[in-house]
Amino acid sequence: VPQLLVIEDDPRLREAMIRSLRASGHAVASAATGMGGLQEALEHRPDLVILDLGLPDVDGAELLRILRAVSDVPVIVATARDDDASAVRALDSGADDYVVKPFSAAQLEARVRAILRRGTGAAAEDPLTVGPLVIDQAAREVRLDGARIDLSPKEFDLLAYLAARPGQVVTKRALLAVVWQTQFGGADKTVDVHLSWLRRKLGESAQAPRLLHTVRGVGVKLVDPDA
Ligand code: CA
Predict the structure, then answer these.
(1) d(CA 113, CA 96)
(2) 117 C-alpha to ligand 1 centroid (Å)
(3) Ligand 1 is a single-atom ion; what residues have CB below 5 A from it?
(4) pLDDT attached to residue 34
């Protein structure tokens, strides 16, 4: 049975969606906040996420980008009628489809079925390669220039997240949200400390970076030094 995750803060709408989707034979989990939804998605790996764009704690589009960086799970966004632009932005950010509120149970079910019919996107997690760095996500092993390096779980998660989007600047806020699943606005210092440990294990420093580069005032990026 496909597992669905509904992320919606409006309790009446959330309950109505859960009821109708369960009546159609799906297994449904739910979250009332963006961060709760992200945590649920990372821990239980649903087959499909239905994401409300108007959430109290995180902008839905930002949550979608974070989710996209770590997961291929199909996402249907739910957006308010007076906000077509946000639906377009969501599709640009990697949503698979969208529904406009108010939508019927039948409309939602049709979109859910269409996406599930495409087949599960449960692709094998191929190793991530960035220049001399190879990250085996299934085995949680990292090799640099062919030599195994030992990372703590958090360091591994940080590196894997950055390696999934090489050359792209990632904010510390995003790292904090993804790796620590902490509310936005948490302590950047935590990220800084782990980044500095990670740097040391990669055999480099902030002053003389090879793979891990700081973009002052914005965040960090992992780059292929040979590219
Ligand atoms: Ca909402």
Answers:
(1) 12
(2) 27
(3) 9, 52, 54
(4) 95
